Amino acid sequence: MLRTRPEWSALGVGWHTILDIRSLEDGFLESTLGLEIIEVVEEAAIASAAFIGLGDKDGADQAAVEAMRIRMNKINMRGRIVIGEGERDDAPMLFIGEEVGYGHKDGTGPQIDIAVDPCEGTNLCAYAQAGSIAVLAASEYGGLFNAPDFYMKKLAAPPAAKGKVDIRKSATENLQILSQCLDRPISELTVVVMKRERHNDLIKEIRAAGARIQLIGDGDVGAALNCGFEGTGIHALIGIGAAPEGVITAAAMRCLGGHFQGQLVYDPAVVQTKEWANVTKEANLARLAEMNITDPDKVYETEELASGENMIFAATGITTCNWLRGVRFFEGGLRTETLIISSKAKTARFVETIHMTGNPKSVQLHG
Ligand code: VTB
């Protein structure tokens, strides 16, 4: 928990004052706020973790949203949700445009845009499967693309392939490029693809090219992050997922130097989802035009989706994935693991926190 340092209190300098005199430029977002952001994602993950394996994905999501919002509102910032649970009318909390942080009351604290997915991979949480995370990205105002609630074709790859693979190219071509960049044969490349009807041809193509596929049920944010780190055994993410989460993924890949590109998908025939059963391509194109997206086929680069100078990405594991452990309970407490990455400080911190919620008889050093 962050508290005002005693010597500052003695001088009559409150915690808010200290936050106010720091600017975004001098590392505020990376250090002071970063610590609070860790708690935001931790709280969301802990709330969702109570639902692991209960088969209640909405419950897991709602609990995370509520916890995230409560913690965010304790921060001295003027936060704006740019990617959240949806439009105000159908999302009671963390809706797009919602103001978070108590700085709004008195006009203090930094101005920050925030993209959240309090429980990414709700099904994974509900069915106790790997890869559910509580996640957010933050930047100064205007630093995150306000993605419509559409689908997005995505391509993620390791830093060595950044700018070399290209979403406009076929999967086969990209695998050849990846093989050169990573200096390993295609047969030793593993690509993550979400198990969806729309990916049937893609899966055939990747297998015909000779690469391996890790098929996942949900959670393409966490899956893409695998490509940002060496040693995960994952070399690319290809396929269509949700667009808002593409922005959050871009924020992380921007900080890690990995490759990420996204292209909005507006044709229901391509997406093949029940969600768009009553939606037409024409109606979707009209929605994009209303949002001033003049080129619906534009390929967005990482730096366009996450353009801010100060970019922060934070994720706490709900269930364990390749690069992050999930919430672990013990008698009298629990343990979380959080990754917080910062573009400016150029740090990726893995923070393990022991939360002594009860009266633990003992706390293991490594759990
Ligand atoms: C989900 C989810 C992903 O996209 O699949 C969703 O698991 C949209 O796809 O992690 P469907 O409507 O086909 O399920 C993500 O949320 C993020 O891109």
General description of the model:
This protein is an alpha+beta fold and 367 residues long. It folds into two domains: 8-143 and 309-356, Fructose-1,6-Bisphosphatase, Chain A, domain 1 (2-Layer Sandwich); 151-305, D-Maltodextrin-Binding Protein, domain 2 (3-Layer(aba) Sandwich). 31% of the residues lie in helices and 24% in strands. It has 13 helices and 14 strands. The protein has helices at residues 6-10, 15-20, 32-49, 57-72, 103-106, 122-126, 171-182, 200-209, 220-225, 243-256, 268-271, 281-290, 302-305, and strands at residues 78-83, 99-100, 111-120, 133-140, 151-157, 190-194, 212-216, 236-242, 259-265, 299-301, 311-317, 328-330, 333-342, 347-355. Strand 6, helix 8 (200-209) and strand 7 form a beta-alpha-beta unit. Helix 3 packs antiparallel against helix 4. It starts with 5 loop residues before the first helix and ends in a 12-residue tail after the last strand. Residues 1-23 have low confidence and may be disordered. The protein binds 7-O-phosphono-alpha-L-galacto-hept-2-ulopyranose.
Given the C-alpha coordinates, what overall shape results? globular
Top CATH class of the largest domain: Alpha Beta
Tell me how many strands there are.
14
Using the CA coordinates, give the radius of gyration: 21 Å
Could you give a short account of the major beta sheet?
8 strands, mixed
Topology of helices and strands:
Blueprint (H helix, E strand, L loop, with lengths): L5 H5 L4 H6 L11 H18 L7 H16 L5 E6 L15 E2 L2 H4 L4 E10 L1 H5 L6 E8 L10 E7 L13 H12 L7 E5 L5 H10 L2 E5 L3 H6 L10 E7 H14 L2 E7 L2 H4 L9 H10 L8 E3 H4 L5 E7 L10 E3 L2 E10 L4 E9 L12
Parallel strand pairs: 1-3, 6-7, 6-8
Antiparallel strand pairs: 1-2, 3-4, 4-11, 5-8, 5-9, 9-10, 11-13, 12-13, 13-14
Helix pairs in contact: 3-4
